[in-house]
Amino acid sequence: MAFRRRLLLLSLITLIIFPLLGYVILTLFYKSSVENFLALEQIKLPNIILGMQFGFYYAFIAYLLMQAEVFEKVSTRIDILVRGLKLNFWEGLFLSLCAGLGEELLLRSGIQPLLGPVITSIFFIALHGYLNPFNWRFSIYGLIALPFILLISYSVGSFGLWFAIAAHFSYDAVLFTFMMYENKQKQ
């Protein structure tokens, strides 16, 4: 339970600190306004819905790929970690919201203008520990997630930041939901 509380607290920190850090980074290099950083003019319901659909479908595909036999031998399987947390549905949504908003504001608004979509996407995957030279099987998950991250990175130009936030949120929410459902089935 203590780990679960710490994870929820870290998620809340991600929701608050990551955007602040992204804003500071962007402001240091571009003297950005809060409105520009948050891309408030890009909040368009059709793009948000499209982002949520994209995240949903990609999460479904990623989940199916994660059922491959190669993942059975991965010592730190994502679904096992999530199952061990015994999250309820609302906690899973909260974690997804924190990651979607916090990480995308930091990476897409703060870092991507400086490093570009490719380096920022690789940085994102590496930051999550999915590029591990000592555990190639675990790195396979990084290779599953990398195209998703690249696609939402490049989508910011066409569909806006909020498309990326919605896609990230729904991707995480769907995976958490699948994993929590599996947890209940195994109990």
Fold topology:
Blueprint: H1 2-30, H2 34-38, H3 45-66, H4 78-85, H5 89-127, H6 136-159, H7 161-186
Please sum up the structure shown.
With 187 residues, the chain is mainly α.
Plain-language structure description:
The chain has 187 residues and is mainly α. The chain contains 7 helices and no strands. It has one domain. The chain has helices at residues 2-30, 34-38, 45-66, 78-85, 89-127, 136-159, 161-186. α4 crosses α7 (161-186). The model has no long low-confidence stretch (mean pLDDT 88).
Features:
mainly alpha; 187 residues; 7 helices
Low-confidence stretches: none
- The ordered H/E elements are HHHHHHH
Q: How many individual β-strands?
A: 0
Q: Which range does the strand content fall in?
A: under 5%
Main pleated sheet: none
Mean pLDDT: 88
**What best-fitting shape do the alpha-carbon axes yield?**
globular
Rg, rounded, reads: 16 Å
Tell me the number of structural domains: 1
Which range best describes the helical content: under 10%, 10-25%, 25-40%, 40-55%, 55-70% or over 70%? over 70%
Q: What class would the helix/strand composition place it in?
A: mainly alpha
Q: Give the number of helices.
A: 7
| Spatial gap, N to C terminus | 17 Å
